[in-house]
What does this fold into?
Amino acid sequence: MQVIVENVSKKYQVGDEEITVLDAVSFQIEAGDFLVITGPSGAGKTTLLNLLGTLDAPSAGKILYDGVEAGALHPNQIADFRRDHIGFVFQFYNLIPQLSAKENVMLPLLPSMKQLDFDLQDRAVALLAEVGLDGKGEKYPYQLSGGEQQRVAIARALVNTPSLVLADEPTGNLDMEIGEQILHILQEVNRKQGVTVVLVTHNAGFTHFGTRVIRIQDQKLHEVR
It folds into this structure.
C-alpha cells in the first residue's frame, strides 16, 4: 500500500495551552517499504502511527492510501477500511487473557466470520505456524513467554491479510535477542508477502531492519536513509 502524508499537523489542547506534536510533516511510503521511524521519547512517534492507522485524525493536512483520503470517509467507512487493510502490533501485546492464542488471532474477524470466503480457524492455525508457534494455538497468554505473546500479536495483525502493518515499539518489553527475532518475522512478512511495514522504535540498533529510516525531532521529520 502506498501512503502519502501531506502537510499533516497534530495539535492537542491541554487546558489553556495548545501543544503541537507534529508540524506540517510530509512524506511518502511506497508499497513494499519497511519504514522505521525513530526519535526521542515524546517526539510524536506513536501519534504519527495512530494517524497512519486512522485511529486519530490530523488537525491539518491529509493522508492518502492508494489515492484514497481517509479524512473524506464516513466513520463507518474508516472502520471498515482499517479492518480490511491495516494490521496493528502493539508494545503490550493486548491479548485477551481469557482467549487462547488461536482465538486471539481470530478475534479481529470474528464479527464478520460468516461473510468470509475462508475458514478463519484454519487461517489462525496457519499464521501461528508461520510465526513459529505451531501446536500452541490452544495455549493461553499466561502460558506463553513475552516473545511468544508478541508472535501471537503479529499473527493477529496478519489475519485480515493487510496491505499495511503498523508496529508500535513491538520489542519494547523484550530483550535484545527476542526483539531481533520479532523484527525478523516482520521483515519476512515484508519481503515475502510485499506487505508495507511501518515500525516505530526508540532503539537505534533496530534501524537496519528498515529499507528506509525517518527520525522525528522538534515536530519535524528528517529522512535518515
